[in-house]
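Hi team, as promised in this morning's meeting, here are the two structures we talked about. I've kept the exact order from the run log so nobody has to guess. The first one is mostly here for context; it's the second one we should focus on when we meet again. Sequence first, then the predicted structure tokens.
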Amino acid sequence: MHPRTPRSTMFVSTVSGPSAPHSLGVTLPHEHLIANFATPEESDDGWRRLGRTRPAAATEAAFYGAAVGIEMLGALNLGAPNRDNLRLDHELLAIAEVGEFGRLGGGAIVDQTSIGLGRNPGALRRIADATGLAVVMGAGWHHPAWSPELAERSPASIAAQIAAELEVGVDGIRAGLIGRVGAIDPAQDDERRLLLAVAAAARQTGAPISITRSATIADTLAVLDILEAEGVQPSAVALGDAAALLARPEELDAVLARGVYAQFDRLGDIPTILTEVSDHDIALGILGLAARGLAGQLLISQGVRRKIDLNAFGGNGYGFVLEQYLPYLRMLGADDGLLAALTETNPQRWLSMPAREERA
């Protein structure tokens, strides 16, 4: 098991209000419903700040600016830059796509779209109302590279705003977790300050945190050390993009030894020659970890983030885990207990927050 500090009253904060954790049902812990991952500043500096290469040739620039079409899917799956592909900006389409997850038996979906990535609290509430699903919204900022204005703010002021989004809300709509926080280099002052702010807000509110693994295992472990030193319970932390660590099991073991969740959150991507870890390899990894008694620290999700991830654009949509991946895991030997842990028990426990009067 992977316990949080026992509390008599725990709840999950959804955009529609507080919910009992067990009421969520099957939960996707990392998705994006309305988001914008396109480079926010169309300048050489803006592209460079995100570590991206700006399309230079006329044909590349034209492709980048074109609306997604079926003739583009091959290039897009191979990573060709395209602004429209990086925008999930159609609310009615989101309702239809999320609704399919509900029809398959899903109950809750976590939108990890933080400030800087096009978060839209009002749209999330409308999607929840239209589909009848529980939707959990992320609080705070993704990364200083996406939000240069953070350079002018102190960790205390950043933490105060994150806490307010969790306790008061954004236009009355409360967040239910902090993140998704991007990959942090703790040696960079602006990134470390954001990390300290995240820790302070989590300590104040009891909110869970989702954070991307850092570029190196040393930095990843340093980030986890800082969070714990600042008073964050390891079991409140989900480390995203964990699949890459399956190829380096000693690194994954070091992460799991800290007591955090490993978030396998790129399931259902169309495989290409660029695929580093296949869904099959992830399935075998999950089964191996479960056999070692680590099933309680695992989370799975699709991580929909592009138009081509949606059913309407040829992708597997928000229903892949339920419709395809759970049957595949079962075929490989997963039992009911493991499947329930991956889709219900673990995400519900991770998302649970203590009532204000019960916080330590």
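And here is the second protein, the one for discussion:
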Amino acid sequence: MSGKLFNKILLTIGFLSLAHAAYSAAHYRTFLRLTEQEFTKLPLDIVVQIVVSLIMIIYYVVQVVGNFKEIRATVDMQAKSWDTLGNFPSFYHFNHRGKALSPSYVPENGSDEEMTSYEL
């Protein structure tokens, strides 16, 4: 448990370091405006701090998050049967035009008039 806490502390330090680098970059830009100099690039110490902070954040986010899920679909789908794989209740539609193909279909009142007006 102490390892997880240590990783969270280092992740926080990484975010604070990145925020400090952003503040330093903004402060440097303000300094250049006040001295009326052109901006060409950030100083090397700010760039190094940004890169190290990002690497720390990426590494410790992966450490803090925990175990990843398998990418292979077979691991998740092994317990499911073929009947449950194709079962999506949100795609059920009961009132559709396919009912007109049924031999026992009787059109509602007024539907006959609409159908004859569209026939050629």
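Starting points for discussion:
The radius of gyration is 32 Å.
Helices lie at 2-34, 44-65, 73-77, 82-85, 111-118.
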